[in-house]
Amino acid sequence: MSQQMRGVYVILCTPFGERGEFDEESLRRQIRFCLEAGVHGVVGPANASEFWTLTEEERRRFASILVEEVAGRVPVVVGVTAGSAQAAVELARHAQQVGASAVMAMPPYARPVPPPAIRDYYQALAEAVSVPIFIQNHDAPLGTRLEPEFIARLVTEIDHVWYVKEETLPPGRAISALLDRAGSRVAGVMGGIGGRFLPEEYRRGACGTMPACQAADVHVQIWHALEAGDEQAARDLHARLLPLLNYEALHGVSLYKEVLRRRGVIRSAYTRSLGGNPLD
Predict the structure, then answer these.
(1) pTM for the full model?
(2) For 99-108, what is each residue's pLDDT tens digit?
(3) What DSSP string runs through 151-163?
(4) How far apart (Å, rounded) are the C-alpha atoms in residues 216 and 198?
């Protein structure tokens, strides 16, 4: 196992034009914005990227642009969640081919899937690629909540299923339970849920966080304070950011994109999943 992936791994939004067309130049600017913010890794397309609205060709293009623009400066984790193992495997193979550092997947998301099928899904991914695999544990309706005991079995039994992105509620308990059950077999657990619980997740043993990227520079500052042992400074800064994170929890991608637009990173806050941007 190579050196642990650790730190702030931000998830890129997928920028669209005012008619919903894929905006490649805004995506590239967004990647550069994140790198300038000092992030430790980049991720996409995932939930904050509206992955379910993208064509397969757009998902592949997104992954290629991400690897190309990052150019080896930080690890790239490509989201390959799909409705079946076969579809996820094809996306994962492409991600590895273009140079991704790792792939991440929720279980099939269109309808509830029984545990044996979930195991087969991750087994198929592990047999298709040699890069590390993240299990994304996300609550319904988009995700399928996996219990710590089940995830521990997956990381123990399936080769290079090494990482977990934990974003079920409450995440702190889930992180502690998983680390207790999986031990050294799990390379690391990262938090999610927009970074709203980052200080608590860090105290519980999280090796990083995967928020959306609109406040990447602030998340990086919080992480550096935590790593330096200055919990008070980290909590003070997190408390200043928290009202925005709570507001984002209400509006999701619409808010992520509006912040990025106002910061001059992307041209439009259009979201395909909502047919525009409903913020007043």
Answers:
(1) 0.96
(2) 999 999 999 9
(3) HHHHHHHSTTEEE
(4) 13
